[in-house]
Design brief:
- The structure is a single chain.
- The protein is built from 7 helices and 5 strands, in the order αααβββαβααβα.
- By secondary structure, it is of the alpha/beta class.
- Strands 3-2-1-4-5 form a 5-stranded mixed β-sheet, sandwiched between helices.
- The radius of gyration is 25 Å and the shape is elongated.
């Protein structure tokens, strides 16, 4: 079995871990062993798969500012410009990828503003927010709910929210249901308009 493990690892240039090596042993050498057994043998032989380094994402702004989840999935509003939700989605547009930033008013689900750019950097969300504020006469105290993407946690975006007397709210990390209204809107646009 040790020879089979060594040969399999060499053939695969040490890219596979014990789970895949277990399958290769069964397929090519007709050796059936539990993956834990294969793992122990690999450890004794000092054979390890090469681990691909994880990509580290950095904020595109000067700082990272995470706001609390003030919306708390309450997707109703008693008046216009009380609660806005915002997000970015990508759209395959011919050979290109475009990035759509949208702001929706939860009072009537009106699209307050949107921008379509070739990138998803901080200027995209800043320009969208400025357009929304201008379109609605610069209302004060609007709750602006987003995810924790680097463009929304950037110093530049959060500074603009504060400067315009608005209130920032953010979904919990990795929880799309906290921003379900705009996630659903973007999903509908992509399925109906860009097939």
């Amino acid at each position: 079995m040790a020879l089979g493990i060594t040969e399999s690892c060499q053939k695969q240039k040490y890219r596979y871990g014990h789970r895949k090596i277990t399958k290769l042993l069964k397929r090519y050498y007709k050796i059936k062993r539990h993956r834990n057994t294969v793992q122990r043998v690999m450890q004794k032989l000092n054979i390890q798969c090469r681990v691909k380094p994880k990509r580290k994402w950095k904020s595109q702004g000067e700082a990272v500012i995470i706001a609390p989840n003030l919306l708390k999935r309450n997707f109703t509003a008693s008046q216009p410009n009380e609660k806005w939700v915002t997000d970015i989605t990508y759209i395959q547009y011919g050979p290109e990828i475009k990035y759509l930033s949208t702001i929706i008013d939860l009072f009537n689900h009106e699209v307050v503003a949107y921008k379509l750019y070739n990138h998803q950097q901080t200027p995209l969300v800043i320009d969208t927010l400025n357009a929304a504020l201008k379109a609605k006469g610069h209302p004060n105290g609007v709750l602006i709910h987003s995810d924790q993407g680097s463009v929304y946690t950037s110093y530049a975006f959060q500074g603009l929210v504060q400067e315009k007397d608005s209130i920032s709210s953010m979904s919990r990390r990795g929880n799309c249901w906290d921003n379900a209204v705009i996630e659903s809107f973007h999903s509908t646009i992509k399925s109906e308009e860009f097939q």
